[in-house]
Write a structure and sequence with these properties.
alpha+beta; Penicillin-binding protein 2a (Domain 2); Beta-lactamase; 5 domains; 5-stranded antiparallel beta sheet; 35 strands; elongated
C-alpha cells in the first residue's frame, strides 16, 4: 500500500515538475526567446493607443494674398440608434425619432425613408448601433447648417431634460472655396474624402496636402491614459501655400461679364483670359458653363461645367488670327498701309475666297482692309507675299500647334495643317485647318504687345512652406523673340485703328474713352457635318491696352451665340470693353481725359478721372510702412475714411491696396499689428471687401446669404480665428442700408454668389 502511494506521489510530483519546467520554458520563450518581440508588440497594441493628428491643406491665394481656397471647419451629422430607442421606450410621447427624421429631412434633404433606416440601424446580433453617420447629405456640412441643427438639438434637450438625445456632430475639416464659382476651373476641387480631383488642387496635390501626424500613449482597461505611461508623438506637417498670379478682382470682372453674356446669348460656351503681356502672368481666366467647387456633386449630370475651355478646347479662331499674318508681314517689310488692292474676292487654285461683304469695298488700302477685316487683304499678305513656308514659320514661332506649358493639367496643343493652296490662303485669316486654343491666342498677341517676345504663361507665382519659412518663386520665362520691337510697335499702331476708327473699324464697340486700345475682331463659321454653316459662328475679340504701355491683353471668345448676325464686333467686343475698362481702373490706370473737380459735403476737393456721375473718386496712396497717424493724415487729405486695426507703430498692410481708384466714400483699412487680436465690425461691407479683410487678418471665413454683411460671429480655437458672416440684400436690413449703399458705390462692391 505504501509502495503504491509512493509511486503515485512520484508520478504526480514528476508531472508537476515537468509542468513547472515547461511553464518556465514557455515564459522564457515568450519574454526572452525569438518570438518575444512579436508578443511585446501585441501587448503594446492592447494597452496603448494611437490617434491621428490631421494636417491642414495649404492655402491657394491670389497675387495680393486673398484666399481662394483653404481648409475650414466642417461637421458630420450622426444619430444614436441605441439612445433614440431608449428614449422612445422611456416616453413615447416625445416622438424623438419622428422629430429627428423630420428635421434632418427638411435641413439636409435626405429622404425620410433613408433617415428612418439609419435611425433604426442594428448590428449583426440584432442590437442597435451606438452611432450612425448621416451620409452623404450630412457629411461635412457647413457651420451655418450645423448651427440650425444645434438649435434643434437644444430644443430636444429642453423637452426631455436629458443630456443626450441621440443627435451628434463630428467635428472635421473640409476644403472651402470662399468665392464660390470664382476661378473654379483653375482651382479645381477636392472631394469630401480629401482627394484632389481636377485643377491646381490635383496638379499641386503633393505640395498642398502635407502629411498627418500621430500621438501614441499607454492606457488602462477603461481607455484612460496612464499617468506615467510612455507617450510618443509625431507632429502633423501642414501643406504649402500657393500664391497665384491671378488678381481676384480681375477674375471677378471676367466672370461677372461672362455670366451676364452667357444668360443673354445662350452659347455652347464662352471664355475669357486676361494676362499681363510683359510677363504673361494670368490675371484672370474663366469659361462658362462653370461649377461651384463647394458643391461639385450637384454638377454630376453636366460634365461640360468641369471642362476648362481656355486650355482644353480648340477653335478655328477666325480673323483674330490675322494679327499673326499682319505681324509677319510687318516684320518682313511686306505691309504698306497705303498700298491698295481690289477687295471683294480673290482666286487661289481650287478656291475663290470672299470678304464677309462679298461685293467688297472697291479699291482700298491695306490699312482700310485691316480695319474692315478683309479676308482678301490677308490672303494677299500671307499667301501671295509671305508664301506658305514663311507664313508657317511665323505661325510656329508664335507658339501655335504646341502646348504653351501653362501650369494646369489637361492642356491640348491644337494643330496647324495646310497642304494645298486653298488651305494656306484660309489659314491667313484663321480658318480651314487652323485649330488653336484660347491660351495660345493670348500668348501670341501678348508677344506683339510686349515688343515681340513670346512668353510662357505663368499662373503660379510662388510656393511657400510655412513649416520651414522658405519660398520658391517662379520667375517669368521668355521662350523666343518672334518679331522685333519696332515691328511690334507698328502692329500695335495699326491694330489701334481697328478700334479707334468709329466709322469703319470692326472693333469700334471695344472703344473706351481715354484709353488707347489695340484689338481685332473674329467671326469664324463653324464646320457642321463637314461643311461651313451659314448661321453658326465662333465670335471673338482680342486686344490689349494701353497701347503705349500695355498692362493687359484680353481675349473673349463665344461659341455659337444664339442671336442673328452674331459677330465678334457686335457680341464679343462689348464684353471685352466691360472687362477691360474695369480692369484698367482697378490697376490704377486712369483714362487720359480732362480732370474733373468735384466736392462733396465740405470734403477736400479730389481730382477725378472720368468719374461716374455722382461719385467723387481719388487714387488711394500707398501708406504701408508709415506711422498710423501719418497714414491717416495722408488718406484724409484725399477725403478717405480710415479705420486703423491694431496698435502697432507702423502700417503693415492696407485694404484696398495703393494705386486703386475708388470713391472717397470707400473706407481704407490699415493693419498695424502682425497678429491682430480682434476682427473689426464688417457690417455693411460687400462680400468681396469682407473676404479681403479676412484675408488681410489671416482668419478663415465662411459665408451665409448674399449681398452685404449684416452680422458676424468670430470663434477662436487652437490659436486660429474663424469668422462666420451673414449677408443680406440692403433692403432686407434697414439698419445697415446706409453702409450697404456706400459699399455699393465702389468698383469692388460686387461679389460672386456663393
Amino acid at each position: 500500500m505504501s509502495i503504491r502511494i509512493k509511486k503515485r506521489t512520484l508520478l504526480v510530483g514528476g508531472l508537476m515538475t515537468l509542468l513547472f519546467v515547461g511553464l518556465i520554458f514557455r515564459i522564457y520563450w515568450v519574454q526572452v526567446g525569438p518570438v518575444s518581440a512579436m508578443w511585446s508588440e501585441r501587448a503594446l497594441e492592447l494597452w496603448s493607443t494611437k490617434e491621428t493628428i490631421p494636417q491642414e491643406r495649404g492655402q491657394i491665394l491670389d497675387r495680393d494674398g486673398k484666399v481662394l481656397a483653404a481648409d475650414a471647419a466642417a461637421y458630420t451629422v450622426a444619430v444614436g440608434p441605441q439612445k433614440i430607442a431608449d428614449l422612445e421606450k422611456e416616453n413615447p410621447d416625445w416622438r424623438i425619432a419622428d422629430r429627428i427624421v423630420s428635421k434632418l429631412h427638411n435641413v439636409l434633404g435626405t429622404p425620410e425613408a433613408d433617415l428612418r433606416k439609419m435611425i433604426e440601424a442594428k448590428k449583426d446580433n440584432g442590437t442597435y448601433l451606438a452611432q450612425k453617420e448621416i451620409r452623404p447629405d450630412g457629411w461635412k456640412i457647413d457651420a451655418a447648417v450645423k448651427d440650425r441643427l444645434d438649435k434643434f438639438r437644444a430644443e430636444l434637450l429642453e423637452l426631455t431634460k436629458k443630456k443626450d438625445v441621440g443627435l451628434y456632430f463630428v467635428e472635421e475639416q473640409k476644403r472651402y472655396y470662399p468665392n464660390g464659382t470664382l476661378a473654379a476651373h483653375i482651382l479645381g476641387y477636392t472631394n469630401k474624402d480629401g482627394n484632389a480631383v481636377i485643377g491646381l488642387e490635383k496638379d499641386l496635390d503633393s505640395e498642398l496636402k502635407g502629411s498627418p501626424g500621430f500621438i501614441r500613449y499607454e492606457k488602462d482597461n477603461t481607455g484612460a491614459q496612464l499617468p506615467n505611461g510612455k507617450v510618443s508623438m509625431q507632429p502633423a506637417v501642414d501643406g504649402k501655400d500657393v500664391t497665384l498670379t491671378l488678381d481676384r478682382d480681375v477674375q471677378f470682372y471676367i466672370e461677372q461679364a461672362l455670366s451676364k453674356a452667357y444668360d443673354e446669348y445662350h452659347p455652347i460656351s464662352i471664355t475669357a483670359i486676361a494676362a499681363d503681356p510683359k510677363t504673361m502672368d494670368i490675371l484672370g481666366m474663366s469659361s462658362y458653363p462653370t461649377f461651384n467647387p463647394n458643391e461639385y456633386w450637384k454638377y454630376a449630370d453636366n460634365q461640360a461645367a468641369f471642362k476648362d475651355d481656355a486650355i482644353q478646347s480648340v477653335y478655328e479662331p477666325g480673323s483674330t488670327f490675322k494679327i499673326v499674318t499682319l505681324a509677319a508681314a510687318v516684320q518682313e517689310g511686306m505691309f504698306d498701309p497705303n498700298e491698295t488692292y481690289k477687295s471683294g474676292s480673290i482666286r487661289v487654285p481650287g478656291w475663290t475666297i470672299h470678304d464677309h461683304n462679298w461685293s467688297g469695298w472697291g479699291e482700298i488700302t491695306f490699312l482700310e482692309g485691316l480695319k474692315r477685316s478683309s479676308n482678301v487683304a490677308f490672303v494677299k499678305l500671307g499667301y501671295e507675299k509671305l508664301g506658305a513656308g514663311k507664313l508657317r514659320q511665323y505661325i510656329d514661332n508664335f507658339g501655335f500647334g504646341a502646348k504653351t506649358g501653362i501650369d494646369l493639367p489637361g492642356e491640348v496643343a491644337g494643330s496647324i495643317r495646310f497642304r494645298y493652296p486653298s488651305e494656306v490662303a484660309t489659314a491667313t485669316f484663321g480658318q480651314g485647318l487652323v485649330q488653336v486654343t484660347p491660351i495660345q491666342q493670348v500668348t501670341a498677341v501678348a508677344a506683339v504687345a510686349n515688343g515681340g517676345k513670346l512668353m510662357k504663361p505663368r499662373l503660379i507665382e510662388s510656393i511657400s512652406d510655412p513649416a520651414h519659412g522658405t519660398k520658391q518663386v517662379f520667375e517669368p520665362q521668355a521662350v523666343r523673340q518672334v518679331i522685333s520691337e519696332e515691328a511690334a510697335r507698328k502692329v500695335g499702331d495699326y491694330l489701334e485703328t481697328v478700334v479707334s476708327d468709329q466709322k469703319i473699324g470692326t472693333g469700334k464697340n471695344a472703344y473706351i474713352p481715354g484709353y488707347r486700345i489695340a484689338g481685332k475682331t473674329g467671326t469664324a463659321q463653324k464646320v457642321i457635318d463637314g461643311k461651313y454653316s451659314d448661321d453658326k459662328y465662333v465670335v471673338s475679340f482680342i486686344g490689349y491696352a494701353p497701347v503705349e504701355n500695355p498692362k493687359i491683353v484680353l481675349y473673349v471668345i463665344v461659341d455659337e451665340p444664339q442671336v442673328p448676325l452674331a459677330g465678334g464686333g457686335s457680341v464679343a467686343a462689348p464684353i471685352f470693353r466691360e472687362i477691360m475698362e474695369q480692369s484698367l481702373r482697378h490697376l490704377g490706370i486712369a483714362p487720359n481725359l480732362p480732370d474733373v473737380q468735384a466736392s462733396a459735403n465740405g470734403k477736400n476737393t479730389a481730382t477725378v478721372a472720368a468719374a461716374n456721375p455722382g461719385d467723387v473718386t481719388a487714387v488711394v496712396p500707398d501708406v504701408t510702412g508709415t506711422a498710423p497717424a501719418q497714414a491717416k493724415n495722408e488718406l484724409s487729405r484725399r477725403s478717405f475714411d480710415v479705420q486703423v486695426i491694431g496698435k502697432g507703430s507702423k502700417v503693415l498692410q492696407q485694404l484696398p491696396k495703393g494705386g486703386s481708384i475708388l470713391p472717397t466714400s470707400q473706407p481704407v483699412y490699415l493693419l498695424t499689428d502682425a497678429k491682430p487680436g480682434t476682427v473689426p465690425d464688417m457690417a455693411g461691407l460687400s462680400l468681396r471687401d469682407a473676404m479681403s479683410m479676412c484675408s488681410l487678418l489671416k482668419v478663415s471665413c465662411t459665408v451665409e446669404g448674399e449681398g452685404y454683411v449684416v452680422s458676424q460671429k468670430a470663434q477662436s480655437s487652437g490659436g486660429k480665428t474663424a469668422v462666420q458672416l451673414t449677408l443680406a440684400p440692403p433692403d432686407r436690413k434697414p439698419e445697415t442700408a446706409e453702409k450697404a449703399k456706400t459699399a455699393a458705390k465702389t468698383p469692388d462692391s460686387g461679389a460672386p454668389k456663393g
